[in-house]
User: Fold these one by one.
Assistant:
Number 1:
Amino acid sequence: MKKFIQALPKVELHLHIEGTLEPELMFELAKRNNVDIPFQSIEEVRQAYSFHNLQSFLDIYYQGANVLIKEQDFFDITWAYLLRCQEDNVLHTEIFFDPQTHTARGIAFDTVVNGIHRALAKGSDELGISSKLIMCFLRHLDEKSAFETLSQAKPHKDKIIGVGLDSTEIGHPVGKFERVFNEAINQGFLTVAHAGEEGPASNIRDALDLLKVARIDHGVSCSEDNILLDQLIAQRIPLTVCPLSNIKLKVFDQMEQHNIVDLLLKGVCVTINSDDPAYFGGYMTDNFIAVTDAHPMEKAQVAQFTINAIEASFISDEEKERLVNITQTYLDQS
Ligand code: HPA
Ligand code: ZN
């Protein structure tokens, strides 16, 4: 099964580029940019990556992003992630970035987006990995800041396919962002949102109703609400689930208790994703292996995660058909 998973074609739909900052690169960039970090060694950084909930992670994650200053830094972090994609046979990836984490520190929006985009273009040319870019608003900040970020994105509309919503879920209802999401939709952006990670199923309903999202990031609390579950199944509303993240942030105590396989078997369009792999101990292959170790499955069921992700992605119908064929051929030959 591990061999099958390693070479299985994969599509990633929930990945924060700032969450791919490995301790080694953090130290390198801290040195290059003369930024102080509160760690003496790589081991010390890894020890600090022990979280008890989402907020305890976010505090460290925003601190780590301080070493990202120049366009080349954003290129380097993105390129390092794409090389991991190549190792894991990820054929297509849809990447989040958090502009406000950087603009709040005086880093220009252009610096961030140009660095990431340059790496994605090289990834397409040299590695054959296709990609889309989604900018997330931070839900702990206010509506005004989200509107400012949306206006900064205007000159980069050709590089950004959609807007999302991340950061602290509890205490920050999605309703605060209804107007800015509406404006983003009017400007032609697609929408997604984190919901039902730590928060209740009602947050998923609100994201669907108020933010008109094409898919839900996380969404695992949908199991609490049978009517919502029926809606997700009937309308094929995708969930971008992040198994190792959910264990590290104590959304579930153990992978055996995770509901992703139950949701798959019920017919929900669930997908497997790595979220913030440098912080949560694994990239795509690691997430697939962790799920199948805890929940014995057939190869065809495992491949369904990729088929679902292709369906849920923002690529063209022709490109979807091409990736489904690659995946189906691989499954048939395994
Ligand atoms: N949830 C909310 N905010 C985030 C996450 C997440 O999983 N990862 C990075 N920012
Ligand atoms: Zn996330």
Note: The chain has one domain: 2-333.
Number 2:
Amino acid sequence: MELPDLDKLQADLLQTIENAPDLDALEAARVAALGRKGQLTQSMKSLGGLAPDDRKQAGQALNQAKERITQAIEARRTVLDAAALEEKLLTEAIDVTLPAAPRPDGRIHPVSQTMDECIAIFGEMGFTVAEGPDIEDDFHNFTALNIAEEHPARQMMDTFYLPERADGSRMVLRTHTSPVQIRTMKSQEPPIRIIAPGRTYRCDYDATHTPMFHQIEALVVDEVTHLGHLKGCIIDFLRAFFDIPDLPVRFRPSHFPFTEPSMEVDIGCSRKGAELHIGAGDDWLEIMGSGMVHPKVLEHGGIDPARYQGFAFGLGIDRIAMLKYGIPDLRTFFEADLRWLKHYGFVPLAVPSMTSGL
Ligand code: DAH
């Protein structure tokens, strides 16, 4: 049997390999040369038909050719691999200078924002945050706060009562944050300086009342606490909160069962038609209740009124949020309307600072 012209065969195969335009063509060339039915493989098989001397020579030549072809395939593969990678990098390149696709970002609800602002201001004054349960017992919500059984405040507050328990008592949804005063006095020794922000509930619904709303309570108990401290603390808070350094603040005698004396606090404002301006003018706007803690309340909290005095105040968070941010209807706060939240909500990372004003 005749062997093909090995030099020509090798030259042809090398040319095909070197010209292979892509990895598929290269693989086809490899199979054509070295595959089971490839030209070099077939030639190897036909060596058996040669005389021993010729076989040896032809075998060596074929092995050399195989070696060269294998090397050429590897070399071409390296080149084609690099080109394929280059192509991929070009077509799949990421342009890091492109602006990021817009992502819908959340907003901080005005109630959360206002609560955080209050906590920041009182925090600077040395207050810590205290908490109590939303579902309260009669004692903490009323009795301990000196609100007697027949006291009109119980009706006034339009309380939500829970179903009667086995012992005949009924739990309530707390009508104010004042019960946290009692819980704090029972669990802490004076000096006490706490604020208690949280949810409160009353059966009421109009533009300025919702069945669930928010209050913040403040309680200070110490050996030398007096009305001057109460006034200074409230004035400082209101001026910081509304960011009006000379905000007029007025204390007006009032009555709460849990304080004696009691005062309502007004801030200066002006009204033109439906428009309300806080900070100046000849009108007043009631903003919170306050007073010196009633001795009976101190006693209910386990504190000796002969040794300690305290002051307390409470205000509506939603209400001051409406005033500060010009939100006309309280009911919209709790309707979970995303358009409303986008309009009145706060961008999460734009944190107000104490120095730049809140
Ligand atoms: N608890 C009162 C209310 O809900 C507000 C209040 C008034 C709280 C006077 C106080 C206070 O701590 O001293 O209307």
Note: The beta strands are 128-129, 135-136, 172-173, 192-201, 212-222, 249-256, 259-272, 275-278, 283-293, 309-316.
